[in-house]
Structures are given as C-alpha cells and as structure tokens.
Amino acid sequence: MFQGRPLGNVSKTNVTSAGQVQSSLEQANLPSLTDSALLIQETVPEGALLSQHNVHLGLGFDTKTQRVPIDVLTLLLSARKAKSFTVLVVDEFQKINNENPLDIAVSLDRTMNFLQWAKQCYGLNFHTLLASSFMHSSEYQRILNEVKERAKGGGEVLLEKLRKTAPNRNRQDTVVNYALNEIAVTKFLQGALDTSLKIGPSREKLYDELMPFFGINLAFAYVIDAFPAGTGKREAQPVVHYIGHHKGTQNGQRIFISDHPANAKAKVYSSGEAALKYFAKLGASALEALNKRQLAFEVLEQVVFKKQIKTSRGIKNLVFNALVEGIFKPYQFSH
What we know:
Largest sheet: 6 strands, mixed
Order of helices and strands: HEEHEHHEHHHEHEHHHH
Mean pLDDT: 87
CATH class of the largest domain: Alpha Beta
CATH superfamily of the largest domain: HUPs
C-alpha cells in the first residue's frame, strides 16, 4: 500500500507541463497517479497489480435519495488501469432487500446514465453488467445451490459470519440470503468472465474473507474510505461510497454529481481534515484522468502528501477547485 509523504524540495512553481509534473513525481520517488495508488489502500495479496488482473466491481445504488454520490468515481477511477474491468450493477440485490420496484427503476436509470458519462469523460474501458441479466439463469442457480449446500457444512460459526456481513441490518434470513448471493455472484463471474481480482470498499472484507471456504480463490483490492462532507471539526466516519443517504455517525453531508457547484462548495467548506484529504485524492485522480496534471500536482503537494493540513480557506478552495475542474465542470458541460 502506498504511504504518502511530503514532496520535500519539489516546488510547484517549477512545474509548467504534464511531463514536468510526472518528472517531479519521479524525482521525489513518488508513484505515478496512473497506477491508482491514491485510491487503493490495500491489496490482498500485498502488491497485487490491477494491470495484471481481470477485475470486477460490484456497484450498488441508492433507492432512497435516487442520486449518485461523486464517491462512485473513487471506485471507477481506482481500476482504470486494470487488464479488464467489469462493473456489476447489483440491481437484483435491491429486490432481495425488498426495495420498491419503481424506486429501483428510477435509481438504476440514473446510475446507468452516470456510468455512461464517466466512461466517456475519463476514457474508462469497463464493461457494464446487470446482475439481473444472469441471476435467474440455470447456471447461476446451480452455483447458488452449491454455495448454499456448502454453507450448511459451516455450521453456526459460518452462519454468524454471514449475518455479520450486514451488521446494521436485522440479522434474519434476508441478510444470509444476500450474503450467499454475493458469494455466488463472485463465483459465477470468475467462471464466466475469468475474473481474478475483486475490487471494492474495505467493508467488503467481511464477504471476501469467506470466499476461500466456498472454493473461490481471488485477489482483492480495497479502495480508500469515503468520508462525508459537512462534519466540521467533528471526526468524520466512513460512509458507503454509492449509498447517498448514508451520512455516517456525525450526520455529515454527501456530495452528489447533480449538486450545483455552489452547494458542493458549501459542503466542502464545512468539512474537516479527513474529508478534505479524501476529496483531494478523488479530485487529483479525476484531474489526472483528464490530463490536467498541473492542478493535480498542486493538490498532491499541498494537501494529499502533507501529514497534517490546516483546514484553512485556501486549502478548502484548492480542494474544491480540484473537484470543480475534475468532476463538476466536465459533468455540467455534457449535461
């Protein structure tokens, strides 16, 4: 896992081109932004390279707000250098959770539109697959039945681990069914698409640690935690990247792709250090994908690679500008 550090004597005032930015990164013994080091906090096994793997990402969506948080880009940009990349949109899992069909349809449509925009805007080469396109097939049902039979052999110990995959929900049969389908989907994709690495938020470790028991041998990559805006000096807690109504224990504010920049600015300006550093990493990664490396380098130097930052107006403005230039302007230009 990459451990950021200050740039030392590398000065932003000497950087005038993308080439010089990269040269300065190399001279400072820092990784290229293009290896996704900013957005991935851990791989299992350690040192796994996405460029050598067929990667899949399970992407949910929020039927309550029916809006897409910018944090989804953390997931998408993290795998842009993968050998191959499949984004599995888990629409069928919303039905397992008994969500309203109309809410599912509206939220799914907005998510798919966002994915199409992100793919074109950042030059991402991923394939989008709906879980509903195969979860009713005979092959998937065969795999799911195998997983369920294998789970019976794990006894109460395994059952409790399956329940803990959703600690904030009522731990009933729905939770176990959800978890078993999560495992079966991973096994199905391994066979159908030859996927060799699963990427996602760190909270998915609860699923991933169970995979070997079911005969699934994969590498894993975990993206950096997403933090809500608007918590001020209160300590922000991680939130689910794609669930917009999830605000953390401090009741923070999520930034959505459809936010007016003025609203997004207010949210950024009311954020504490953890959220500002997170938004800086996301903004810098988006800027690099758009080849806007000079501003990306400035954000890296003044925010990301500092052990501590002052949550000053200047820092907040720099972070907000990175989000504007890297995300909001491109989105508004295409809409």
